[in-house]
Design a protein that fits this description.
Blueprint: H1 2-10, E1 12-16, E2 21-23, H2 26-38, E3 51-53, H3 55-66, E4 71-75, H4 77-94, H5 102-113, H6 123-129, H7 136-149, H8 155-158
Parallel strand pairs: 1-4
Antiparallel strand pairs: 2-3
Helix pairs in contact: 1-3, 3-7, 4-5
């Protein structure tokens, strides 16, 4: 959710082109965990990656829900890795936690080169528990609403979701 928060704050977000990640609502994960403990075989394994979405799509969704425009600027994988390395160096020199490090940058760059997650077999969780049950739109809206109510986003940044 960090790209969403940054995007809502700045209205301009540089994002890697081609990355795709699984976005899962913690309430869905909790339901699968509890269901796994209370029903079925103790040996069952469930992959719960959620909705496959790229960072730009996630920001477009947040812009739609909040009614605030977010401009997305794409950049190549090698630049992402260089920025991750720079963040590591700055973080070490200043003893500050940076929003990106070289390891995350390398993993994201590899994800981009592979074309992002294409398909994740979540059939066992879907069959046993109806996973995922919470739409991505609900997850993002609830997250932005909470960030606003907790003081991390202003009324302007939360837009339509400010209440």
């Amino acid at each position: 959710m960090a790209p969403v928060l940054d995007g809502l704050r700045r209205s301009l977000v540089p994002l890697p082109k081609g990355a795709c990640f699984g976005m899962v609502d913690v309430r869905d994960v909790a339901a699968v965990c509890v269901g796994s403990l209370t029903t079925g075989s103790a040996q069952a394994r469930h992959l719960v990656a959620g909705h496959l979405v790229g960072p730009a799509d996630l920001l477009r969704l947040s812009a739609h829900l909040t009614g605030r425009p977010v401009r997305i600027v794409g950049f190549p994988a090698p630049l992402l890795t260089a920025v991750g390395l720079l963040c590591d160096l700055v973080g070490r020199a200043t003893a500050n936690k940076m929003p990106l490090d070289v390891e995350v940058a390398r993993m994201t760059a590899a994800n981009m080169r592979a074309g992002g997650l294409q398909e994740v077999d979540q059939a066992s969780a879907a069959d046993a528990f109806g996973f995922p049950t919470i739409p991505l739109e609900t997850t993002v809206a609830d997250t932005v609403t909470w960030l606003h109510s907790a003081g991390y986003l202003s009324d302007e940044q939360a837009g339509n979701l400010a209440g």
